[in-house]
Amino acid sequence: MATSTQAESIEPGTNIPTAGARLGSAGAASRISNRNRVWSRFVRYRPGLFGLAIIILLVLCAIFAPLIAPYPPFKIATSLRGDPPSADYWLGNDAIGRDILSRLIYGTRIALIVGVGATIIAVTVGVTVGAVAGYFGGKVDFLLSRLVDALMAFPLLALLLTLSAVFGPSLRNVVLVIGFSIWASYARIVRAEVLSLRERDYVLAARTAGATDRRIIFRHIVPNALGPVIVLSSLAIGGVIILESALSFLGLGINPPTASWGGMLADGRDHIRNYPHITISPGIAIMVTVLAFNLVGDGLRDALDPRGER
Questions:
Q1: How confident is the model at residue 3 (pLDDT cuts 50, 70, 90)?
Q2: Structure pTM?
Q3: Between vectors from CA 9 to CA 5 and to CA 12, what angle results, nearest 5°?
Q4: Domain 93-310 belongs to what topology?
Q5: Which residues lie below 8 Å from residue 260, measured CB to CB, with a gap of 6+?
């Protein structure tokens, strides 16, 4: 009787939520709750918050470099060559009289562009190759796995030096060369994840429903395999910045006089005994930036760990 009374009390035209709508709203609420849980775990790791604050500061420096830098990065004052830090030039001047602080601020742009850009390329290629290899298996897996093994067999720095020498030093080439040289580690991780995910019930249900392989891979499998990739990529950005600095230091990275931290180290290499401040500042900048990304990566690793609270 109670059911009948409730049914009769519903006025015509009233929108009644369907089961699909309820499931959709429940799924959205679950995703929001999961994001909140990940963020709450990340916040508990104070070094990770410190690293995130440094990264935000670096991003702001890169965006507003023309407003923050006290002098143009290419301005030369020959009378100030090698001068130590002073009230007007807080970090001193380099061997030809340029302001080190201004070049350091502009060099933040290069570091972040190379670090983030090369990592995006590596993640895109690595996730695609790893997902395809793990999902299809058989000959496809064998061929792609041998390709990954062959790439990882080369010493990374030697490979980068060879490719940079072939294609020439420039910002675009540095991003592409590094990005297409470090994707193998992502492919290996994603392949291992996909091998276990492809037999899950929701994947079998998607196959039964007639979903294409492409949709199953990129809609159902890859999103569930991105946890380790996010952690690895956050840790790898610091390593990419070091690789760019090494290439620029050896003259195969960013073309001078563009300000880059590795190039600044190379500029001070011949004057390190007389003007050590030229190399100290970019060295500290590289160290702090790499440390910040590593701290954020450690925080994400703990926050995304499904095995429980910390």
A1: very low
A2: 0.84
A3: 135
A4: MetI-like fold (1.10.3720)
A5: 107, 110, 111, 244, 245, 248, 253, 254
Sign of CA dihedral 227, 230, 233, 235: negative
Report DSSP state, residue 217: I
The residue type of 74 is F
What token pair was written down for 12? 């015509």
Cα angle value 26/231/35 (rounded, 5°):
20
Q: What CA–CA distance (Å, rounded) separates 267 from 95?
A: 7
Best CA proximity match to 90, nearest among 277, 289, 262 = 277
Cα 97 to its chain centre, rounded Å, is 34
Exposed/middle/buried for residue 240 (C-beta within 10 Å: 0-12, 13-18, 19+): buried
Q: Is the dihedral of CA 141, 143, 146, 148 positive or negative?
A: negative
C-alpha span between 211 and 233 (Å, rounded)? 30
Residue 24: the pLDDT is 45
What's the alpha-carbon Rg for the chain, to the nearest Å? 26
> What are the residues facing 99 on neighbouring strands?
93
Alpha carbon 213 to chain centroid, angstroms? 28
Domain locations along the chain = 93-310
Task: Give SS3 for 196.
Answer: helix
Q: Tell me how crowded residue 128 is: count the other CB atoms within 10 A of its CB.
A: 18
Q: What is the pLDDT of residues 6-27, one digit of tens each?
A: 444 444 544 544 544 443 454 4
pLDDT for 128-158, tens place per residue?
999 999 999 889 999 999 999 999 998 998 9
Place of tokens 């059911």: 3
Cα–Cα distance measured from residue 301 to residue 307, given in angstroms and rounded to the nearest whole number: 11
Residue 12 CB-half CA count within 13 A: 0
Dist. CA 248–CA 256, nearest whole Å: 9
Q: Indicate the SS3 state at residue 45.
A: coil
